[in-house]
Write a structure and sequence with these properties.
Strand content: under 5%
Helix content: over 70%
CATH architecture: Up-down Bundle
Strand order of the largest sheet: 1-4
Low-confidence stretches: 187-193
Number of strands: 4
Order of helices and strands: HHHHEHEHHHHHHHHEHEH
CATH class: Mainly Alpha
Length: 352
């Protein structure tokens, strides 16, 4: 047991710190190689703090632990909505923009409802996973196009129109065409040759080595972390979905917690809540989508309806609190923390 506890802690450390260095090295490398901001924003920045959850979910899928994947997503989103947002609100009253809640908050609630609908029967098919991944890709592309405007023009209804009319395909086409146009304008092959010759001078080799090292750390960390979690699930005879919804999800949300609390304390409430909402959408769309495409996710339904119901409740509670005064007041943050304690107690007393 001591060995597994050490592996659990070491895996979490490798997972979180490896993810930080991976994103930094990848962003630095992309800029030095002249990759467009379009590609960087839609891949590296969009992934951001979701790398630990994605790595641990894929590790769980390869171990045929679909229940742990769904449990991790549920637990991570409940932690985002109640623990992290509540802690930020309790430390400093968090203000936000109406446009962001009207768009991102509503999209978060809609994707959560769709996720609960698909997961209700305890099985996530590849088709359902593909649908979730499509929503996430379309949402990310939609944010790129919405940078130039705010208000109702880029609200929830506009997103639905963007999604169901396949306008994200036009966004992809325009972004790729612009990238090729810049490359041809600069003399394609000559530019590539100059980039290779500058590799050592500009530290590209260093970035590549750091990328490889951090990627290796993420792979080993995720394997150690999930392996130890599976061990404890068997030792205490707990369903994998419960382990994922508690310990695993709490560990992988550490990056979101640090970013959100730091933003709230510095007075950037819209960044704090934007990180919470964006992480919830990424967890559902990207992580469930990518994992479910690798292998359909099956889970025992023991406690699953209760977990899904609590997730929906947490999503609604955050949006209701924000819409009452367009901010999270300190007493609301404390109440949200109380609900998270209730969630943890529910896992312990009702699902074990």
């Amino acid at each position: 047991m001591l060995t597994q506890m050490l592996l659990f802690a070491a895996g979490l450390l490798l997972l979180v710190k490896g993810s930080d260095f991976f994103v930094q090295a990848a962003a630095s490398l992309a800029k030095k190689l002249g990759v467009s901001e379009f590609v960087i924003g839609l891949t590296l920045v969009a992934l951001g703090t979701s790398v630990p959850e994605l790595a641990s979910a894929l590790a769980a899928v390869f171990r045929r632990q679909g229940g742990m994947v769904l449990g991790t997503v549920i637990g991570a989103n409940v932690a985002n909505l109640l623990l992290i947002a509540g802690l930020a609100g309790a430390l400093a009253a968090v203000r936000t923009r109406r446009e962001m809640i009207g768009r991102d908050g509503t999209i978060m609630l809609a994707t959560t409802a769709l996720f609960c609908l698909f997961a209700w029967n305890g099985y996530f098919s590849r088709l359902e996973a593909a649908a979730m991944l499509l929503v996430y890709v379309a949402y990310t592309l939609f944010l790129f196009t919405a940078k130039a405007g705010m208000g109702e023009e880029y609200g929830f209804r506009r997103f639905l129109n963007y999604l169901f009319r396949f306008q994200y395909l036009l966004t992809i086409r325009d972004g790729v065409s612009a990238g090729f146009g810049r490359a041809r304008g600069k003399g394609g092959r000559d530019v590539a040759d100059r980039k290779i010759s500058r590799a050592f001078r500009e530290g590209i080799i260093k970035d590549l080595l750091l990328l490889a090292a951090s990627g290796t750390a993420i792979a080993f960390g995720a394997d150690f972390f999930v392996g130890a979690a599976v061990f404890f699930a068997g030792l205490f005879e707990l369903p994998p979905v419960v382990i994922g919804a508690s310990v695993v999800s709490l560990g992988t949300t550490l990056p979101e917690m640090s970013v959100t609390v730091a933003a709230a304390r510095k007075g950037f409430g819209h960044i704090a809540l934007g990180n919470v909402l964006g992480s919830c959408i990424a967890n559902i769309g990207l992580i469930v989508g990518a994992s479910g495409l690798v292998r359909p996710l099956g889970v025992a339904r023991q406690g699953l309806p209760l977990l899904l119901g609590f997730l929906l409740f947490a999503s609604l509670l955050l949006l209701v609190f924000i819409r009452t005064a367009w901010r999270i007041r300190r007493w609301e943050g404390i109440l949200m923390l109380g609900f998270y304690v209730l969630y943890v107690s529910m896992l312990y007393f009702l699902l074990t």
